[in-house]
Amino acid sequence: VQLQAYGGGLVQAGGSLRLSCAASGRIFRGYTMAWFRQAPGKEREFVAAISSAAHMASYADSVKGRFTIFRDNTRNTVSLQMNSLKPEDTAVYFCASKAAWLNPMNERQYNYWGQGTEVTVSS
Question: What mean pLDDT comes out for the span 86-114?
Answer without folding.
Answer: 96
